[in-house]
Amino acid sequence: MRTKMNFSGRQFKIRCSAIGHIIGEPKLKAAKEAGELSETAKGYCEDWLKGKIFNRKLEFTNKYTEKGLIMEDASIDFLSEQLGLGMLFKDDQFLENDYMQGHMDISLPDYVFDVKNSWSWETFPLFETEVPTSGYFWQLQGYMELANKKAAKLIYVLSDTPQHLIEREARNYCFYNGFGDMDIEIYNEFYNKLTYQDVDPKLKLKVFDIPRDQQAIERIKIQVEKCRIYIDKLLTQIK
Fold first, then answer.
1. Cα separation of 111 and 144, whole Å?
2. Among residues 81, 102, 118, 227, which one has the fewest Cβ atoms lying within 10 Å of its Cβ?
């Protein structure tokens, strides 16, 4: 049975969490001046199109995203208590417009939240004054556009790592260093490294205020249009 490709680049909408993949400019000066997509953006479009063609969903996970998903609700409870916001619930409403789509962690009348769980104390941005990952800036611009908000907060939480992830880290360390079975002393080292009950709660929260940037939002829309053109070009190659 043949796969029917009854879709086009016009159907492409960028997920807010993936805006950072399409927003960069090409490294080559000629490509930049011609207004072309970066290689990263092209790769993202190609993956999107392959997912459509093969009717499959691209899945990505690692220990960082796994911890984030597991600790999401607990982190929301923690930040609401620390910031005095009362009881908060994750916003599971799916939003989209002509260019982007997604759902944010929390939406309040004046702003939106996005919560990030740092993997460990080393990766927690305690002293950062700017958003550490540019992709998160773009993600929140997308959320503000979808929710029609003028401000957003990117909040990093230093949460305790779930026990099964700590055990996995310790077992992997033992295996790759020739210990055989997991050594309890090594497990305790990882446990002490990846849990933070001894740390002042105020030091386990980092908030970045991100104002709405309409020029940035318009740039997202331009990049989505470029992606649509590139996707249609790819389709002509395989039809």
1. 8
2. 81
What are residue 115's DSSP bridge partners? Answer: 155
Separation CA 127–CA 149 (nearest Å): 27
**Domain ranges within the chain, ordered by starting residue:** 9-59+218-238, 63-214
Backbone angles phi, psi at 14, to 5 degrees: -85, 135
- Looking at every residue in the chain, the average pLDDT score rounds to 92
As a CATH number, domain 63-214 is 3.90.320.10
Which amino acid, one-letter code, is at 221? K
Q: Where are the beta strands (DSSP E) in the chain?
A: 14-15, 95-96, 100-102, 106-107, 112-117, 151-157, 205-211
Kindly report, residue by residue over 25-55, the tens digit of the pLDDT.
888 888 887 889 999 999 999 999 999 999 8
Residues of the chain with pLDDT under 70: 1-5, 239
Instruction: Using a cut of 0.85, tell me whether the model's pTM lies above it.
Output: yes
